[in-house]
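Dear colleague,

Thank you for sharing your sequence with our group. We've completed the structure prediction you requested, and as agreed, I am returning the results in plain text so they can be pasted directly into your records. Please verify that the sequence below matches your submission; if there's any discrepancy, let me know and we will rerun it promptly.
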Amino acid sequence: MATQRNDYYTYAYLREDRTPYYIGKGRGYRIYSRQRLIKPPDDKSRIIFLKKNLTEEEAFKHEIYMIAIFGRKDLGTGILRNLTNGGDGVSGIIHSAERKQAQAERMAAKGGALHPMYGVPRTAAQKKTQSEKMTGRFLGALNPCSKAIIAIKPDGTELHFGSGREAARELGVPQGNFSPRNLTTGHVLAKGNFKGWAFQYE
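Please find the predicted structure tokens below.
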């Protein structure tokens, strides 16, 4: 009978005012990893363990509990930048055949002959209306591929934008600073009016 690992832990990343901005669960070096959407602070004293020597199930439960306590910024319920309620990413999860089949059927229904409007001609008026609705749809935060941006001032104050285009327009920062590579690594401006500001994906 396999023994259950108890080398998991829960952790928090703290702002300079010592309030948490992210709660997570992991094992090994996970707490310090920068290969992630929400980066740990450079100041190691603001990276803290909450509980250690947990099983994975215990770690998930504690992560969910702590996120519920502090709330999520994206939902307007609190101060954390977590984008889920925790407890996700269960190791080795296998979806049932029934679940896979149901998902395939849902995807198939979105296009082709199964689409409810398949083969139905549109009038000129309908085409015009659709065109007007689409105007500007794929710009800035309305682009379905856009990702929310966080601008972090040198004093730790955070500004939130729907997209890099929106942040560039509102702040007057060159659009080139918002490349996927810069935003993934947490780009910090080294000169200009925004020297010391950091920009990253939310």
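Summary note from our side: The first strand starts at residue 8 and ends at 14.

Kind regards,
the structure core
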